[in-house]
């Protein structure tokens, strides 16, 4: 169950990062409220995952899912630049996440 919590926490991290961008520096009310709500949910699920998973594994997976997800949202929804180097960087992050998962004993 810890892995389910962890992946869900990473997905919520993507949502709060997107909403933070939409909040325009916390000057727009509803995106700001959404940012905080999804942050609380993300941190809550991360803390549940950390009951079982090691800190290094849980935190690395959480930030990696958030980073790659935010990159994909930025490119697909926000129209941010897509370059070979950015794609390679995202692939390397995913490779690191896979290696971290494979090295976990949980």
UniProtKB/TrEMBL annotation:
Membrane-spanning ranges: 33-50, 57-78, 84-100
Top-rank taxon, per record: Bacteria
Topology in membrane: Multi-pass membrane protein
Subcellular location: Cell membrane
Keyword Transmembrane helix: yes
InterPro entries, alphabetized: EmrE-like, Small_drug/metabolite_transptr, Small_multidrug_res
Predominant location category: membrane
Keywords: Cell membrane, Membrane, Transmembrane, Transmembrane helix, Transport
Alphabetized Gene3D superfamilies for the sequence: 1.10.3730.20
Keyword Transcription: no
Family listed: Belongs to the drug/metabolite transporter (DMT) superfamily. Small multidrug resistance (SMR) (TC 2.A.7.1) family. Gdx/SugE subfamily.
PANTHER family from the UniProt entry: GUANIDINIUM EXPORTER, SMR FAMILY PROTON-DEPENDENT DRUG EFFLUX TRANSPORTER SUGE
Protein name: Guanidinium exporter
Organism: Brevundimonas albigilva
